Amino acid sequence: MVDKNTHSYDASDIQVLEGLEPVRLRPGMYIGGTDEKAWHHLPVEIMDNSIDEAVAGFAKKITVRLIDSKTIEITDDGRGIPVDEHPKYPGKSALEVILTTLHSGGKFNNNVYKTSGGLHGVGSAVVNALSSNMDVTITRDGYEWHQTFSRGRPTSKMERGAASKAHGTSIRFTLDDEIFGASAVFKPIKIYRMARAKAFLSRGVKIDWHCAPELLTADMEIPTDTTFYYPNGVADFLEEKTNDKPRILPRLFSGSVDFPDDSGRVEWALTFLTDENGAASDDGFFASYCNTIATIDGGTHESGFKSAITRGIKAYGEKVNNKAAANIIGDDVFDSVAAIVSVFYKTPQFLGQTKEKLSNPEIAKYTENALRDPWEMFLASDPKTANALLEFIINLANARIRVKQVKEVARKTPTKRIRMPAKLADCSKHGIAGTELFIVEGESAGGTAKQARDRATQAICHCVARC
After folding, report:
1. How open is the CA angle 401-407-413, to the nearest 5 degrees?
2. Which residues of 216-227 are buried (b: 16+ CB within 10 A; e: fewer)?
3. Is 373 helix (H, G, I), strand (E, B) or coil?
4. Is 293 within 8 Å of 355 (Cβ atoms)?
5. What are the extents of the domains in the chain?
6. Is beta strand 436-441 parallel, antiparallel or unpaired with respect to 458-463?
7. CATH 2.60.120.260 fits 21-228, yes or no
8. Do the Cβ atoms of 44 and 122 come closer than 8 Å?
9. Which of 44, 199, 430, 455 has the most CB atoms less than 10 A away?
10. Cα–Cα dist 122/435, whole Å
11. Is the domain covering 234-410 a CATH 3.30.230.10 domain?
12. What is this structure's pTM?
């Protein structure tokens, strides 16, 4: 029995968390956990803000600097976070509000950003809350502005610094051992690949990479300093990744198409890889993104892309009267593909706070419709290559069908495999050696023989009529 007098439940039991306290209390709700994957997500959130400035046309250069194993700095030459007083919070700058208040920022206003990767509020404020220190420098309105924070709270007032004609935002933060543990460190290879991916997803944007030399080892095979620049976006990156590999398409299938009603666009690049013998390659990959965010678990943009490519190759097979094309399914087409699809959309919907799967149902249709005509035209423009691709995929389909048939046969009992007579009582031992088959006539003879036999080695077959 529960003593109601000692287990009261009233208004005093209701806890009210203020500011960024909920983030520190339950970080998993905002970044998916406190493991290595989670703390490597923090730089992504800061960089997404810089990328949004670039995609919107306000920034041309971003710098990622890994200062030490726990500290990273990301800088852009965009407009700079606003520093004037926020009308809803007298006495606080917009900068302080953005970095200390959940669900604040310009991403909720389509007049500020046409597309954005940060609509869910998992952004700078969350990074601030989970950092032991954060230093922010804003350059705009003719001056530098500076403010510091610790674990989500301001540790200084925003101060105006030297005069400057430049513009942009620079955020440096350090992982908080109280949240992630003392062993939490940034892995240079992960940050390097993140910066490279953001560059090829943002056509024409330069991203400078700098890493403290002492953080690198020879096996990492990454430079201390480099610049990522892909003027043709995903097409340049895929060309770089596959130009030294055997592939069926000498020329990549790539392009960019706007969605209806100015709601966004899709960019893509595609080829098919083979090994030295012309068989399917194990080096293939398929990567998808929404608003430059990696959608690791796929989503509707992947579905639309795959549907367009699969239907297009089947339609081409029908056009050239190759009946075997009817057996093709999506798994055959994408068995050795190397492809990237990247969508930009005004109102993306993701499953999970870390945005790993896109769920907008309309994007599947938009993406499929966008690729249908370009893909059909691509195939029609080079019949020799299209025929080679069709034969390659048909071979994969035939191999899949053969494997399926073998598995189906293996699942069947020995009796079903060799179509034994219905009146057979088989023995349990397999093979001819050491086994016997007795053939008898009539139901009664069959019953008597079954009772007297050795089930392990003797099989009985009785006939209801003359065998």
Report:
1. 135
2. beeeeeeeeeee
3. helix
4. yes
5. 21-228, 234-410, 414-463
6. parallel
7. no
8. no
9. 199
10. 71
11. yes
12. 0.75
